[in-house]
Structures are given as C-alpha cells and as structure tokens.
Amino acid sequence: MKTQSLKVKHLLVVMTMILISIPGFSQEKEKAERRQKGREHRAHMEMRHKRAEIPNLSDKQKEDIKKIRLAFHEDVLPLKNQIGEKQARLRTLTTEKNVNMGQVNKVIEEIGAIKTDLHKKEVAMKQDIRKLLDDEQRLYFDTHRNQMKRRFHRGQMRKG
C-alpha cells in the first residue's frame, strides 16, 4: 500500500514536471519560427532594395542625389513635426466631452494644407533627381517609382 502510494506520488511529480515544461518547448518553437520569418522578410526586402536601385549611376550622380535628398529631408522635417503636433491636437479635440467641430475642422484643414505642401516638395525633389538622369535611368526611375519611394524615404540610396 505504501509503495503504491509512493509510486502514485512519484508519477504525479513526473507528470507535473512534464506539464510545466511543455509551454517552454512551445515558446522555443514559436521563437524559432519568428526568427525564420524575420530572416525571410529581411531577405525579401533586400531583394526589393536591389531591384530599386537606379542602374549605372555615376559617382557624381550619386553625390548629387544624396545632396538633393538631404536638403529635402531637412526642409520637410519641420513639416512632418507640425503634422504630428496637429494630429495630437486633433486627438485631444475629438476626445473631449463636448467636441467643438469648428476647431476640429480647422485643425483638419491645417493638416491638409501641410500635407499638400509636403507633397509639392516631394514632387519637386523627384523632378530635381530626374534632371540628373540620362534617358535609361529616368525610365527606370519612373517605372519603379514605388520601390524608389521606399528607398528614398529610408535614406538607402547609397548603392548603385
């Protein structure tokens, strides 16, 4: 009787330890899957970046594009900050107990005006870059605009 009781206790201890360790194994598997997905995503993004490079850029073109981009980002940073501030103000206004729609609409208009100015500056920057390119490069730049946009905004137009 005593040995049987001891065996049951021992079995319960072993089963408890197994049950406690199962979530750890599951978490490790999930971590490994996330790491694998992360590697696949980085590899995919790297391939997209390689496709987004303007072909045959000279060193002077690269340097000029870098200068244009830098000037653009310095110019638009205050605008982006203003948008962030206005959006915070809009959140505040729209979550008050008594919402003043006149103020809400005014802030929305202000955000729209800043975004319009930002878009105009972006288009002007792209035109300045286009002026530096030969016909083949310009065609590539124009047909890969979405990929180029991601690279230009991330500051990765270094390779070529």
- How does the major sheet shape up? none
| Class from secondary-structure proportions | mainly alpha
Number of helices, where a helix is a run of at least 4 consecutive DSSP H or I residues: 5
Ranges where pLDDT stays below 50 over 5 or more residues in a row are 156-160
The amount of beta strand, in percent, is: under 5%
In percent, how helical is the residue content? over 70%
Spatial gap, N to C terminus: 81 Å
How many DSSP E strands? 0
- H and E order: HHHHH
| Global geometry | flat
Q: What is the CA-atom radius of gyration, in angstroms?
A: 28 Å
Broad CATH class of the domain at 52-154: Mainly Alpha
What's the CATH topology label of the domain at 52-154?
A: Four Helix Bundle (Hemerythrin (Met), subunit A)
Oligomer: single chain
Name the average pLDDT.
84
The CATH architecture classification of the domain at 52-154 is Up-down Bundle
Structural notes for this entry:
This is Periplasmic heavy metal sensor. By secondary structure, the chain is an all-alpha fold. The protein has a domain at 52-154: Four Helix Bundle (Hemerythrin (Met), subunit A). 86% of the residues lie in helices and 0% in strands. The longest helix has 50 residues, at 2-51. Residues 156-160 have low confidence and may be disordered.
List descriptors.
single chain, 160 residues, mainly alpha, Four Helix Bundle (Hemerythrin (Met), subunit A), flat, disordered C terminus, Metal_resist, Periplasmic heavy metal sensor
